[in-house]
Amino acid sequence: MNNPHDKLFKAAFSQPDVVASLIESLFPAALRQAIRLDSLVLTTNSYIDDELNEHFADLVYDCLLDDGMPVQIALLLEHKSYTVAHPHLQLMRYLLNRWQQDVEHGQKLTPVIPVLIYHGTDTWQHLPFAASLLGMNALVKPFFPEFDYLLVNLTALSDKQIFTFRNRFLTVSAALMKHRQDKQFADYIRQNIQRLMQGIAVDELMSVVLPTFLYLLETTNLTGSDIVFIFSTVSKETEEAAMNGADQLRMEGRVEINRKLVKGALKLGMDAETIADTFEMDLAEVLSLIEQVRQEKP
């Protein structure tokens, strides 16, 4: 997962309260009222195949409606920064992948609510599937599928609306993805960091600051020191969280460099002891990295 938008999306929307806040703020009223927010459970499922991988990243939640009916909410982050001509075709493939699993397990098909999250610069036109057809006639209409999806167009949301979200991580992630293509994105962060971080509990700071730190590092020209300084203007606790985040990222970076060294050394036929001696690494770490390399997909 090298896409910075995917990383931020997964970090934020893996938290059920972020999704609950999204539902409260942006879902249609009748559907919002019917969903039991306390029943939201993040699953480990993904229905993205190789073809859909270029279009979406997904997170899937199980939940219940107020009548006890189980449904799934599929959050799909659109990868492209421009609109696509026929989004229903990709969504249909996604739904079929989901329902194929039901068929294989001999189960009835699970209702799925697709939620497409878009943060591109082009204007997204949310049209019915019938608009993609050459024409429509009452006689042939029964032979074409008709379904809809919920569109969360972050680019079209006003800052005023974003800052009214109950969950602050939803506010932060929505604001970052909305403004990330601004020419003055870094200035936007400097000017709004206090508003963005306002109201985040101290024990929740790290879960927000670390993905935000990483996103800024990968989408701007800001250095790690620049980002720590920006966070320092909020509070001492936020500065400490940013510094801890920087240390954690440096450690992860060192591990990744060592993993690449081990992978290259294995290709040269070196054994674990030789790798450890050559690169002055701990043998236990080398053995652990060798196991990781062997488990990688070819």
From TrEMBL:
A matching Pfam family: Transposase_31
GO BP terms, alphabetized: DNA recombination
Annotated Transposase (putative) YhgA-like domain residues: 3-203
GO molecular function: double-stranded DNA endonuclease activity
Protein known as: Putative transposase/invertase (TIGR01784 family)
UniProt organism field: Spirosoma oryzae
